[in-house]
Amino acid sequence: MDPRSEVLLRQAELFQGNLLLVGLPADDLLGRLPNAHGWCWHAGDQAALEARFPERSQFGVNVPEREFDAAVIFLPKSKDLTDYLLNAVAARLPGVELFLVGEKKGGIESAAKQMIPFGKPRKLDNARHCQLWQVTVANAPQAVELESLAQAFEVPLAEGPLKVVSLPGVFSHGRLDRGTELLLEHLDKLPSGHLLDFGCGAGVLGAAVKRRYPHNTVTMLDVDAFAAASSRLTLAANGLEAEVLTGDGIDAAPMGLNAILSNPPFHVGVHTDYFATENLLRKAAKHLAKGGELRLVANSFLKYQPLIEEHLGVCAVKAEGNGFRIYRAKRG
User: How would you classify residue 195: left for phi > 0, otherwise alpha for psi between -120 and 50, otherwise beta?
Assistant: First the structure.
């Protein structure tokens, strides 16, 4: 069981009423707290929770509408996302107990200060390298529309500036990361047909490709509901149309693709996790049509080339710079 869940269960008597668990892990916590309901934005966690606890967790970017006696927020990696979650939940649940739980190395002590606008936070527990904080929502904030927290910026491209809209918690929120910047410079000679932006984040690659190759079908896929919402905003801001999906990795992608583009993730929360990318490299051939191409950017220190060659075929380094490499391989 997740150590944060273990800390909650040490104080189980506090959590017997109608409880909202925000950003909960995919463990047995819902089984141990029968009156609890989850709110999740990670498609993999949601699928696991739905399989074990049907209809007890809601997927998406908005607070569930039902009534709750208390809420627990599992500390996310992003301070901006923590702010949104705290304010969104406090606005919906004035006067109730709001809890924040997280790992010490994830910054829980500092994040607890973000509860101060609602009342006086107090630390309830300190165990399993985690802390549990509580505040009574005495000063409920006004409800804030998530889109009002979006950050927009422009990316200069040959076809003209591309407007990118990102929401709290999305990778590289409010700015263009160096890996994507390098890949944007090397989108030439992509195959025609159906292209996938894997791990689409705020939708930079998918939107850029759709604008440069308007007759191609573009699908954008991410595990995170906030990323998918950002990608839809980016497409709308540029007058573009593409399919945006949420799903847990390449297994959720369509078949018969002519190209897969990716600046793949390797962090989940405060932990490093290469599984989604390595699974992409192992299974890309299954999702690509014959002659289909994989083109991805990754930190130079990540040894992806041998894995690509093992599962797809000859892999060339198309470009290199700023500590990143672009790999290119075709399905034979």
Answer: beta
Q: Classify residue 17 by its DSSP letter.
A: S
Reply yes or no on whether the pLDDT at 266 is more than 70: no
Token code pair at residue 209: 């490709």
Measure the CA–CA gap between 233 and 152, rounded to whole angstroms.
10
The count of domains in the chain is: 2
Q: Look-up: residue for tokens 């490299």?
A: 281
d(CA 277, CA 283): 10
- Within-domain flag for 110: yes
Same domain, 129 and 173: no
User: Same domain, yes or no, for 108 and 257?
Assistant: no
Predicted TM-score (pTM) of the model is 0.95
What does DSSP say about strands 243-246 and 315-321: parallel, antiparallel, or unpaired?
unpaired
Residues of the chain by 3-state class (helix, strand, coil), percent to 5: 35, 30, 35
Check whether 268 has a pLDDT greater than 80.
no
Per-residue model confidence as pLDDT tens digits over 199-209: 999 999 999 99
Given a contact cutoff of 8 angstroms between Cβ atoms, the answer to whether 123 and 84 are in contact is no
